[in-house]
Amino acid sequence: MKTKSSGTVIIDWKPDKGSDITLTKQIIGYLKGRIAKGDWLVGQKLPSQRKLAQLFDVNRSTIAESLSELSALGIIDSSFGKGTTIINNTWSLIFAGSTPDWNNYIEHGIHRPNNPTIQAINKFEFFEPITRLGTGEMSPDEFPCDLMASVLKRVSDLNISYNYLEPLGLYELRAGLCKYLKKFNLSVEPSQVLIVSGSLQALQLISLSILGPNSVVLVEEPSYIKSLRVFDFSGITMKNVPMDKDGIQPWMIDDTILKKGMSILYTIPTFHNPTGITMSENRRSELLRWCRLNQLPIIEDDVYRELYFDDPPPFPIKSIDTSGNVLYLGSVSKSLAPGFRIGWIIGPESIVERLGDIKMQTDYGSSSLSQWIMTEWFASGLYEVHIQKFRKQLKKRCFFMLRLLDMYFSDIATWNIPKGGFYIWLKINKSIPIEKVFHHALKDNILINPGDIYSFKKNNCIRLSYSYASNQDMEDGLIKLSNIIRKM
Questions:
Q1: Which terminal residue of the chain has fewer beta carbons within 10 Å of its beta carbon, N or C?
Q2: How far is CA 347 from its chain centroid?
């Protein structure tokens, strides 16, 4: 029986060698239990016998004996060259009366599963000793622990409530944010701001609130949003628009596909994810003009804005929007800490109120503690202190990676020279299967982000990030990656 379940199971258990129960029986019991409870699904694969022996810290013969019994029971199937797979058989029937068919539920859920490569990235990012060359997060080494301690002390001295907050979020945070955003030429009132749990939730709320089935979302080619399923479950169609060195090309939009009142454009104009491109000032004006003419709203995702190295980027598209055409997204996930889960949507009051109502229906508001903490970061001026220091460190990290690329990739690839943000878009000179590069790198404990997951078509690109890995990990990882590509 074929199923949609795939991937290798995760094992974080070892048998008790001091127990009176034999190692074989312990292992069989553990594997049976995980399958019976629905933790592991039909179609998933077990690790190789050698890997299982390492994970369980037992002899390979013990593993072979355990798997042989499970196979005899019809719980697993071991085919030469294909590994060991959990199968739908008499074991499933034994538990049919007491255990739901979770696989059937999963397959009929509204959300579709992620691309297998993205699932693997999400899983292996937290495995040791993985070197993360694609992670779009600030390194824990760069987190301002001393400043955070000061902020937490200030918050603890306040006489505040940590109860639920109003639908748009903590007023003090929204007011402080409006004051802070004036530096970007954004004139905003607190009633135009909704606090969300990061930009991803902002996009989910937009898809739930103002877009419906058969809507069209225009995105850059390539685009970060292509790696997500945020619009798929609503039946929304994504259409790609080409980019050049100045950003998205509005004149390349096929206006025949636009549906009035059912279309929207999503863009990351500043330090674009994944290419690192920053849209020029003229292109921003040109894009806004085209969208106004065609009554096409814009979602401007500006989470990387403050991460410039030398000269600030052009002001946001929202800063020249006089007709409420732009929904502006921001966050501290890239600039301070993704774990705070604090972002914002800025737009017309009617839209923000609608989004706030939907947010209350989904999670009853973002963390009140995180919102008070972020309020103090802005009010104290310590956020700006941190950002200025982080920019300098990010620039050093970027230049270090660029030197490594010159040393190990100059004859096999080309790349952009970032002026900010997290990413380098590496283009391999020859056509090779990037998915195979990904899997070979993973075997060498190197985690990369293949360009295919951001694109509507196959490409020879890799999104590298200099924001997370240490210098030593960067060098070791890029040397290994260069060798893998050369062999292929």
A1: N
A2: 24
